[in-house]
Amino acid sequence: MKNLSSSEIRQMFLDFFQTKGHTIEPSASLVPVNDPTLLWVNSGVATLKKYFDGSVVPKNPRITNAQKCIRTNDIENVGKTARHQTFFEMLGNFSVGDYFKKEVIPWAFEFLTSPDWLDMDPEKLYVTTYPKDTDTQKLWAEVGIDPDHIYKVEDNFWDIGEGPCGPDSEIFYDRGQSFNNLPENDPESYPGGENERYLEVWNIVFSELNHLPSGKYVEQPHKNIDTGMGLERLVSIIQGTKTNFETDLFMPLIEHVEGLSDNRKYDTSDADDVSFKIIADHARTVSFAVGDGALPSNEGRGYVIRRLIRRAVLNGKKLGINGPFLYKLVPIVGKIMESYYPEVSQQQEFISKTIKAEEKRFSETLNDGLQLLNGVIADLKKDNEQVIDGESAFKLFDTYGFPLEMTVEYAHDEGMSVDEDGFKHNMELQRERARQARGDLQSMGMQDETLMEIKTPSEFIGYDHNEATATLKDIVVNDEIVDSVNMTTEQAQLIFDQTPFYAEMGGQVADIGNIYDENNNQVAEVMDVQHAPNGQNIHIVKVISELDVNQKYVLKINVDFREKVRHNHTATHLLDQALREVVDPRTHQAGSLVEPGYLRFDFNSNDALNDQQISQLEKIINEKIWAAIPVKTEVLPIEEAKKKKGAIAMFSEKYGDTVRVVEVDDYSVEFCGGTHVSNTAEIGLFKITSESAVGSGVRRIDAVTGEEAFEYLNDQLSLLKETAGKMKVNQFKDVPARAEQLVDEVKQLKRDNQNLKVQLTSQKSAEVFDKVEEISGLNVIANVISGADMATLRQLADKWKSEQKSDVLVLGAGSGDKANLVVSVGKDAQAKGLKAGDLIKQIAKEIQGGGGGRPDMAQAGGKDPNGLTKALQKAKDIIKNT
């Protein structure tokens, strides 16, 4: 076996499949584009779905890639096992309806064993196959795998529910018993078992079936190959390391952490090795994720990044590292990976700054978490209890980033334990909520054989023409190709040899319009235009009169609709560049929508734009509009466009050998296939209507141009005029001062109102606290107070506590369809087993509500004020039986 570096192995894999006629697909962003089913790109095939589901036919059906991936479903195991990582690389080769088993199996064997490639010993290779897949078993034996090394395993069938599926075959490498963590005769000591001896190298999926919603399995129109090989595992085998973490992908990071620690050394036999591994893994993940535009936040991808940074910081503390340090590892990640992923080194300053800011933020949160934990421990000691409940442990984990093991350690130091089953229950509840939020979206659709088979050439001529005479080449109705369609059909899909209709792409909506016969009679209304799998513009139409294939028709777009879309599309290009000037040079597009009535632009940022920044953006863009700058378009080879023009590619779009470049002077130069104005002056006016957050690290701007911008400003002026009238202000310029005066008056009224409430509470307390009754040796105050709200009840409870008026307080108040309850329990009553939280849960049912709280104080809300008297009586009955 050859001695190779990780970068050499990655390149060798790609070179091998390039010799087999494969096109190398560049690694896509970790942030999925137009795929709501994924939080992260989590496999090599994830970015190729459009080819496998038939929505796009690739230029070359043979594809290979090295794809960066993130999986976070098992974060807790990172560092504790030899091969768990949140960030990893998946090497893969793929066939979209081209080659199948008899090609891919010999190639896999050749790459692994040939002296020209990895030169592994064939005797050390084992494979698992689906029991019924005899063809695969025969092929492995024919290429040179010992028949005794071919295992039949029922689990070797790749199926994710509805969509493509089929048998698969996994390849294992035998590292010898010296690497094993099990006795040789252990039932799990076999290829595919839970052991460290037989290491899975490669999985080859033979995607030949479709799993239908009915549960039936049918053959796919095109049989596909989807393979995945984890680079980290492969490097571990070739470099002969015990785990993935001793390879050249991780050791430079671990060695640097050693230098930052208080003289700790990485040793796989030492407990500290887990912290080293966690830090190295998480440094890679957050460096790449932030580089791809995901920023720390409290939800979605941002929450994952925040959690990983916090885990790394906590493990740094275990190694004696205090203060921000993770950001210092970004340059090392960049250096290790720059041969294939130069983006980390290129964005090193931005990534480091982002991580460092999050580390500092966590230092403050960490202190808050420790205060909560200390509070929980103090309360338990008061009650002579020894177990931290699972809900509190989970809150520490979920809100403050405390791993369970850290809470367990703190508890142990105080002579306590943690309800770990309760923690796991809360964790599962959160996962279930996440699953429900994602819904039942499928990760890959089924192939549309009808559209995939249509290969008629079709040319888009809409850049220069608003109408065209074209020949109708294909008609599809109800997924069947037909020769004609009549007016009884509601909808049809049409493909012409040429068309002026723009198909929806890159955020720009499709053109609408009409189709006429040669006598100018309308025969169809074009409602939408999409790309067929082979790239043609497919017109979705409402049929008005008969249409026949091979007949000529006149296609006319709605010119007013197109013009407004053009204005808004060019405005998005100006906005894209202006954001780099105003917000940050590294700001990039994260999505867009170009409609005739407005434009929407998403961009990466963790901070909201302030009023000054919004004004700056509008000023810059309107100045470019009023400067009447010509807008030029040019089709160039992609490398020339990048180097000569410096054109910006839009958020992970895939481009062909040639690209269309749209230039607004030297201010904005971008790859774009959309329609644009010929001069910025055509846009007329630009106005931002809103700015908001749409996800973790992503902000959204809505804006209007031209006529819509004028109408928007007119509406705002009308609102200002109406407001001025209601404020009795004669001039608009006096509105802000009058508004400030009214705000001050309202604040004063609120203060006066609060003072009155305090006086009222004091008066009520005198009435309430005088009515004390004895129940089972306890002094109890229980009253329904008219005209009070929850705030008043809490104030009364606080006053009761400070004055120690009784052992138990139960107060209720209600109005309309709202009812409130408050319960407070003194120490003597608690000692008898009475707890406010338990009591409130039982009596809240009487007001059709619920609540909870601590042993000394609890509250509840409901929707039946008529039940308050019953609730108080029930409270008395419970106290009586305590």
Automatic annotation (TrEMBL):
InterPro entries: aa-tRNA-synth_II/BPL/LPL, Ala-tRNA-lgiase_IIc, Ala-tRNA-ligase_IIc_anticod-bd, Ala-tRNA-synth_IIc_core, Ala-tRNA-synth_IIc_N, Ala-tRNA_ligase, Ala_tRNA_ligase_euk/bac, DHHA1_dom
Domain of life according to the entry: Bacteria
Compartments (UniProt record): Cytoplasm
Stored Pfam families: DHHA1, tRNA-synt_2c, tRNA_SAD
SMART domains (UniProt xref): tRNA_SAD (SM00863)
Cofactor: binding comment: Binds 1 zinc ion per subunit.
Keyword set, alphabetical order: Aminoacyl-tRNA synthetase, ATP-binding, Coiled coil, Cytoplasm, Ligase, Metal-binding, Nucleotide-binding, Protein biosynthesis, RNA-binding, tRNA-binding, Zinc
GO biological process, one term: alanyl-tRNA aminoacylation
Domain Alanyl-transfer RNA synthetases family profile, first and last residues per copy: 4-715
CDD domains membership: AlaRS_core (cd00673)
PROSITE patterns given in the database record: AA_TRNA_LIGASE_II_ALA
Zinc found in the keyword field: yes
Binding, Zn(2+): 569, 573, 672, 676
Catalytic activity: tRNA(Ala) + L-alanine + ATP = L-alanyl-tRNA(Ala) + AMP + diphosphate
Names of required cofactors: Zn(2+)
Protein family according to the UniProt entry: Belongs to the class-II aminoacyl-tRNA synthetase family.
Free-text note regarding domains: Consists of three domains; the N-terminal catalytic domain, the editing domain and the C-terminal C-Ala domain. The editing domain removes incorrectly charged amino acids, while the C-Ala domain, along with tRNA(Ala), serves as a bridge to cooperatively bring together the editing and aminoacylation centers thus stimulating deacylation of misacylated tRNAs.
PANTHER family recorded: ALANINE--TRNA LIGASE, CYTOPLASMIC, ALANYL-TRNA SYNTHETASE
Name of the protein in its database record: Alanine--tRNA ligase
Originating organism: Companilactobacillus versmoldensis DSM 14857 = KCTC 3814
Gene designation: alaS
